[in-house]
Amino acid sequence: MDLEDNLLMMPGPVPVPARVLRAMSKPMINHRGAQFSEIYDDCRRILADVFKTENDIFVLSGSGTASMEAAVGCIADKDDRIISIENGKFGERFKDLASRYGSVVPMEFEWGNSVDLDLLEAQLQEGAKAVTMVHNETSTGILNPAEQVGKLAKKYGSLFIMDGVTSLGGDNVFVDDWGVDVAVVGSQKCIGAPPGLSMLSVNEAAFDAMEKENLPYYLDLKACKKKVLTRKKHKLLTHLRSLFSMPCRNPSI
Ligand SMILES: Cc1ncc(COP(=O)(O)O)c(C=O)c1O
Q1: pLDDT in tens, 210-233
Q2: Burial (CB count <10 Å: 0-12, 13-18, 19+), residue 31
Q3: Ligand 1 nearest-atom number relative to CA 12
Q4: Residue 240: CB partners within 8 Å, gap ≥ 6?
Q5: What are phi and psi of 23, to 5 degrees?
Q6: 165 alpha carbon – ligand 1 mean position (Å)
């Protein structure tokens, strides 16, 4: 295998531009220091444009699945009804993750077929804390109707947690306009960085819903928010090399 010239024909990891690779070879910095905070904030600012959101954005050490788990792990408690839409491999993963934390109502559609919005509305009428759905279901190539699902979730007072792992940065995704309460993306897909990081936007309604007694330890988004916004040390913010690789738009790299 030629490590210098390796064509990747998959949804991600994608080939990473030389400029990004060069950024990863920079000397180490203090991962709790001011320089780190600057890079981190730079990434958050750039990502807000990608997500089209005013919400808080966090970069977590851990691939897309880690941020999916952070979202449901912080929001869902054991008796909470969580509607999990599944029409492909990653919808199934979201359902499995959610069922570790909440009381999942699976909404399964034939893989490759879209969501039946009437059936979803009927489930929402029964009440649910949240709906999980994959926007671009990579396993089948289907793009699910995120905007409509966001509107329905809002109408019935449920949160909308969206896996945008292979749509954010590659397709038009309007997190705020669509009413997505938590949106997740992975570094190695349309963002064009190496794997190992994931990013998520979280709005106030989602933070308010994180009321359970035992939030996850490493993936505690409330703690993350507190530390990031007050620039305090945080256990999550450690994946330095990958963070360097995030396209920081620094022409000197
Ligand atoms: C839609 C979707 N969700 C979640 C994942 C899982 O992401 P990761 O492999 O970064 O944990 C993937 C990975 O391909 C994906 O395509």
Answers
A1: 999 999 999 999 999 988 877 765
A2: middle
A3: 14
A4: 28, 29, 31, 36
A5: -60, -30
A6: 6
